[in-house]
Design a protein that fits this description.
The structure holds 2 protein chains of 2 kinds. By secondary structure, chain A is α/β, with parallel strands linked by helices. Helices cover 23% and strands 34% of the residues of chain A. The relative contact order of chain B is 0.19. The chains are: A alpha/beta, B alpha/beta. Bound molecules: adenosine-5'-diphosphate (ADP) and magnesium ion (MG).
Chain lengths: 481, 252
C-alpha cells in the first residue's frame, strides 16, 4: 500500500552521541605497512623475539592472500598503505595505577559512560579500557588476582604470562585463517587477555571497552580468553568511535578456549560510528571471533548486539570438539541508512552429543542491507549432534534488504539440524494500534523492535540489557513515520 | 463531548463516509448498527486518526478541540479510546509492558507524573477483577496467540486501565459467546459515568441487551439513515437489514 511506504520511508538522521574527538597528543607510526611497521609496533611494546617472529610470519602470509569478496557487502577498496597501524595516546609518564591516568582520557571514558574509577563503577564489572592501539588501564585487577584470575591487556600478558600467550594465541584462529585475521596477527597492538583458573567462577562481569580516537588509524585488537576446567566467566565488550568523513578499519580477532566443564559467555554491544545518512564515513568492522569447546561438557555462548559500523563482517563461531559441548549464538543486527551487515555464525560439530543453538534477529531500515550467513557443520564422528537455528528479519520500509544464507553440511546421519526463518515488516497497523493508546511513533517502533529482539536481549547481562535496548531505539530513530 | 458535522472520508479516492452527523453528550451511550461494509469501522478509524483515510469535508469537535487537527496519540491523550475490531499482535512485547507504557504516555500528555510500579500494579489488580482477565494472559506477548475472545477482553481491559472520556467499541462482541459478552458488557457498564460516553459499534442487537444504549443509529452506505431510541435495535433485529437496504436504495 502506497501510504504505508511513504510514512515508513521518511528517514531522518539520528544523532550518534559518541562522535566526539579527544584532543590528546599521540605517539604514532607513520601510515603504511611493511616489515618495518611491524618491527616498530613490536619494539614499542618491547616484545620478546617469538612474538615478533609470529607477527612477521603472519604478515608474509597476508601478503599472499586475497581480500575476500564473497560477503554480501560493497565498499571502495581499502588502501592498506594509507592506514596508520599504531597510535597511542601520549601519557605524561608510565602509569602504575589507574589513578595516574591522564585526566583527558579519564574524561573521554566518562563521557562514554564508562568510569575508570573503581568506586564509581558498577560494582559487578571489571573493565579494561582500550583507546586506539593501547590499553590504558584495567580495573579491579587486584581483587580478581586473589582468585587467580588474570585480567589484563594482551601487551601486559605477553610480558607477564608469555607461556600462556604463546600456547594459546593463534590456536583457535590460526594466522592463515583469513585475510583480516592474518592482518590482525601481524599488526595487533593491544586488546584484552583473560585466564580463569580451574574451578573458579568469576564473580564479576569482565568487560573491555574499545574506543577509536585518532584520525587515519586502524584498530586491530586481539582478545584471548581461556576458561580452565570447571570455570565460568561472563565477558562483555563495547565499542565507539568519533564521527569522521573517512572510513576507518577495525579488524579484530577474538579467541576463546573452554576446557572441560567450563563455560564462557561472551557478549558484544557494537556501536562503532555507522557513517552519516548519506553513507559517508563510518567504521569497516571486519572481525574474526571464534571459540573452541575443547573439553567435554563445555559451553560457549556468543551474544551480540550490532548497531554500529558502516560495514559489519563477522561470524562468531564455535568449534564443538569436546563431547557433550554446547555452542550458542544470539544476535541482533540493526542496519539503518546505508549500513551493510553480513553476519552470522559457524557451528562446527566435531564431538559426540554436541548441541548448538542459533538465534539471529536482523532489523533493516533506510537503504541498508542486512544478511545472515551461517554454517552448521556436522563432522563424521559427531554422533547425535543437534542444531536449531532461527533467523528472523524485520524490515522498516521497502528500500532496505534482508537476506539469509544458511549453509548446512552433515556428514553423520544421526544428526538433527533444524532451520526456521521468517521475514516481516513493521506494520502501519501495529504502529497505529500503539498510537491509539497514546504512544508516539518513535516509542512504538522501540517497543516493537525490542519485542522482536527480546529473545536475544534476554541473554545480555542485566547491567547492559537496558543500555542495549536504548541503543536499538536510538539506532532506528527517525526511520519510521 | 463529541460533535460530528457533515463528515466525509475517502480511502484511495473511494468515497466511504458521505456526510455523517452525530452528537454525543457526556453520560450517553450511543449504538451504531448497520450491515457489513456500510462504513462503521471507517468512522471509528477516522475518529481515532488513522492516516489511510482522507477527510474531505466536515468537522469533528471533541472535548472542545478540533479532533481532526490532533495526531492519533494526542486524541488518546485527550481521552478517546478505540477498542479495535481486529486487535493487532506485537510479538515479544509483553501485554503488561505495553499497557504500562500506554498509561504513562497518556499521563505524560496530561502533565501527570508516571505511575510507579506499585501504583500501576494496584490499578491493574483492580481492573483485572473488573473485566475478569487472567494475569497469565497479561504476561504474554501482546495479543499473540490470543483467542478471539481473549483479544476482545484485552481491549476492554485496556479501556478500563485508560479510563477514557469516550470509548468506541468496534464490534467488540463479534466472536464472543454469551458469557464473554456479558463480561465485556459488565466492564463497559462499570466504566459508565455522567462524565464519559460510549459509542458501541455492532452488527447484532444482542450486545445491546447488556449495554443499554440511549440512542441507536443505523449507518448505511456511509450515512446515518435512521436514529431512534433503543427500541430501534429490536426493530432491526426483527426485520433484518434488508428493509433498510430497500428503503434506502443505493444512490452512490
Ligand atoms: N483499506 C481499505 N481499502 C479499500 N477499501 C476499504 C478499506 N477499508 C474499508 N474499505 C471499504 O470501505 C467500506 C466500509 O468498510 P468498513 O468501514 O470496514 O465497514 P463496516 O465496519 O461497516 O463493515 C467497505 O466497502 C470496504 O470494502
Ligand atoms: Mg467493521
Amino acid at each position: 500500500m502506497n501510504n504505508e511506504l511513504s510514512a515508513i520511508e521518511k528517514t531522518v538522521l539520528s544523532d550518534y552521541k559518541y562522535g566526539f574527538v579527544t584532543e590528546i597528543e599521540a605517539d604514532e607510526a607513520p601510515p603504511g605497512l611493511n616489515e618495518d611497521t611491524i618491527r616498530f609496533i613490536s619494539a614499542k611494546k618491547n616484545e620478546p623475539e617469538w612474538m615478533l617472529e609470529w607477527r612477521l610470519k603472519a604478515y608474509n602470509h597476508w601478503l599472499k592472500m586475497q581480500e575476500p569478496s564473497w560477503a554480501n557487502i560493497k565498499y571502495d577498496a581499502i588502501n592498506y598503505q594509507d592506514i596508520k597501524y599504531y597510535s597511542a595516546p601520549k601519557q605524561k609518564k608510565k602509569v602504575n595505577s589507574l589513578d595516574e591516568i591522564d585526566p583527558e582520557l579519564r574524561k573521554t571514558f566518562e563521557k562514554l559512560g564508562i568510569s575508570l574509577d573503581e568506586q564509581k563503577r558498577l560494582s559487578g564489572v571489571a573493565i579494561d579500557a582500550v583507546i586506539d592501539s593501547v590499553s590504558i588501564g584495567t580495573t579491579f585487577k587486584e581483587q580478581l588476582a586473589e582468585l587467580g584470575i588474570i585480567f589484563c591487556s594482551i601487551s601486559e600478558a605477553i610480558q607477564e604470562h608469555p607461556e600462556l600467550v604463546k600456547k594459546y594465541i593463534g590456536s583457535v584462529v590460526p594466522i592463515t585463517d583469513n585475510y583480516f585475521s592474518a592482518l590482525n596477527s601481524a599488526v595487533f597492538s593491544d586488546g584484552s587477555f583473560c585466564y580463569i583458573p580451574k574451578g573458579v567462577r568469576c564473580p564479576m562481569e569482565l568487560s573491555t571497552y574499545f574506543r577509536i580516537n585518532a584520525e587515519g588509524t586502524g584498530q586491530f585488537e586481539r582478545t584471548l580468553l581461556i576458561a580452565d576446567e570447571g570455570s565460568y566467566v561472563s565477558y562483555l565488550e563495547g565499542c565507539t568511535a568519533p564521527i569522521r568523513d573517512e572510513n576507518q578499519l577495525h579488524a579484530a580477532v577474538v579467541e576463546l578456549i573452554a576446557m572441560e566443564n567450563a563455560e564462557i559467555k561472551y557478549s558484544t554491544v557494537q556501536n562503532w560510528y555507522p557513517g552519516d545518512k548519506d553513507g559517508v564515513g563510518g567504521i569497516y568492522n571486519f572481525v574474526t571471533k571464534r571459540g573452541i569447546c575443547q573439553g567435554a561438557h563445555s559451553k560457549i555462548s556468543w551474544t551480540q548486539v550490532e548497531t554500529g559500523s558502516s560495514i559489519t563482517w563477522k561470524y562468531p563461531s564455535v568449534i564443538l570438539k569436546g563431547d557433550h559441548s554446547v555452542g550458542e549464538f544470539y544476535s541482533v543486527a540493526v542496519t539503518n541508512n546505508h549500513q551493510q551487515a553480513d553476519t552470522g555464525t559457524k557451528m562446527m560439530h566435531l564431538g559426540k552429543n554436541t548441541r548448538s543453538r542459533i538465534v539471529s534477529k536482523g532489523i533493516s531500515a533506510g537503504v541498508s542491507n542486512n544478511s545472515y550467513r551461517g554454517l552448521v557443520h556436522v563432522g563424521k564422528n559427531a554422533a547425535n549432534a543437534r542444531n536449531f537455528s532461527q533467523c528472523d528479519s524485520l524490515l522498516l520500509g521497502d528500500k532496505c534488504g534482508a537476506h539469509t544464507f544458511p549453509y548446512i553440511e552433515v556428514k553423520n546421519n544421526t544428526a538433527v539440524v533444524e532451520h526456521e526463518a521468517t521475514t516481516s515488516k513493521i506494520g502501519e497497523d501495529q504502529i497505529f494500534y500503539c498510537n491509539q493508546r497514546g504512544i508516539d511513533t518513535e516509542t512504538a517502533v522501540a517497543l516493537i523492535i525490542n519485542g522482536f529482539a527480546k529473545e536475544v536481549m534476554n541473554q545480555l547481562p542485566m547491567e547492559f540489557a537496558v543500555e542495549a535496548q536504548k541503543l536499538l531505539a536510538i539506532s532506528l530513530e527517525g526511520s519510521v513515520g | 463531548m463529541l460533535s460530528i458535522k457533515n463528515l466525509h472520508a475517502n480511502i484511495d479516492d473511494k468515497k466511504i463516509l458521505k456526510g455523517i452527523n452525530l452528537e454525543i453528550k457526556p453520560g450517553e451511550v450511543h449504538a451504531i448498527m448497520g450491515p457489513n461494509g456500510s462504513g462503521k469501522s471507517t468512522l471509528a478509524s477516522v475518529l481515532a486518526g488513522r492516516e489511510d483515510y482522507e477527510v474531505t469535508e466536515g468537522t469533528v469537535e471533541f472535548a472542545g478541540k478540533d479532533l481532526l487537527d490532533l495526531s492519533p496519540e494526542e486524541r488518546a491523550g485527550e481521552g478517546l479510546f478505540l477498542a479495535f475490531q481486529y486487535p493487532v499482535e506485537i510479538p515479544g512485547l509483553s501485554t503488561t509492558n505495553f499497557i504500562k507504557t500506554a498509561v504513562n504516555e497518556v499521563r505524560k500528555y496530561r502533565g501527570e507524573e508516571p505511575l510507579d510500579a506499585v501504583a500501576f500494579l494496584k490499578l491493574m489488580k483492580e481492573k483485572m477483577a473488573m473485566v475478569n482477565i487472567d494475569q497469565s494472559l497479561l504476561s504474554r506477548s501482546l495479543n499473540e496467540g490470543f483467542s478471539g475472545g481473549e483479544k476482545k477482553r484485552n481491549e476492554v481491559f485496556q479501556m478500563a486501565m485508560l479510563q477514557p472520556k469516550l470509548a468506541i467499541l468496534d464490534e467488540t462482541d463479534s466472536g464472543l459467546d454469551i458469557d464473554a459478552i456479558r463480561i465485556v458488557a459488565n466492564g463497559v457498564n462499570k466504566l459508565r459515568s455522567k462524565d464519559n460516553a460510549v459509542l458501541v459499534v455492532t452488527h447484532y442487537q444482542r450486545l445491546l441487551d447488556y449495554i443499554v444504549p440511549d440512542f441507536v443509529h443505523v449507518l448505511y452506505n456511509g450515512r446515518i439513515v435512521k436514529s431512534g431510541p433503543k427500541e430501534l435495535a429490536f426493530e432491526l433485529e426483527e426485520k433484518g437489514y434488508d428493509f433498510i437496504k430497500n428503503e434506502f436504495k443505493v444512490e452512490a
